């Protein structure tokens, strides 16, 4: 029983920061046989010391999953689209 209590006390905590993120402007997906990574792209304006303004794209959030989980998510989305249960 001590081992179970020890495992439960070492569970990671989830902290949700209360900060605003930029609107997502795109996504990238990279896959291998073992995992699929889906990254969400955010755009922001930045300027250098000369005052030149440029758009910077960065991937601040990513989801890593197995190919099986990705297939399940795709099937759920397809089923929802076919049933018309997704609201906009």
Describe this structure in words.
- By secondary structure, the protein is α+β, with helices and mostly antiparallel strands.
- The protein is built from two helices and three strands; from the N terminus they run αβββα.
- It has a three-stranded antiparallel β-sheet.
- Strand 2 and strand 3 (about 55-65) form a beta hairpin.
- The longest helix has 17 residues, at about 65-85.
Spatial extent as radius of gyration: 20 Å
Ends distance? 49 Å
In helices, the fraction of residues equals 25-40%
Biggest sheet: strand arrangement: 1-2-3
Low-confidence stretches: none
| Form type | extended
Strand content: 35-45%
Treating each run of at least 4 consecutive H or I residues as one helix, how many helices? 2
DSSP E strands, number: 3
Order of helices and strands: HEEEH
User: Sheet bearing the most strands, described?
Assistant: 3 strands, antiparallel
Helix-and-strand structural type: alpha+beta
Write down the overall mean pLDDT: 83
């Amino acid at each position: 029983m001590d081992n179970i209590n020890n495992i439960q006390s070492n569970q990671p905590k989830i902290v949700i920061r209360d900060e605003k993120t930029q609107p997502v402007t795109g996504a990238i997906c990279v896959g291998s046989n073992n995992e699929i990574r889906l990254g969400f792209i955010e755009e922001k304006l930045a300027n250098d010391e000369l005052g030149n303004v440029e758009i910077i794209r960065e991937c601040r959030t990513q989801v890593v999953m197995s190919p099986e989980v990705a297939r399940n998510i795709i099937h759920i989305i397809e089923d929802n689209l076919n049933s018309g249960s997704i609201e906009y």
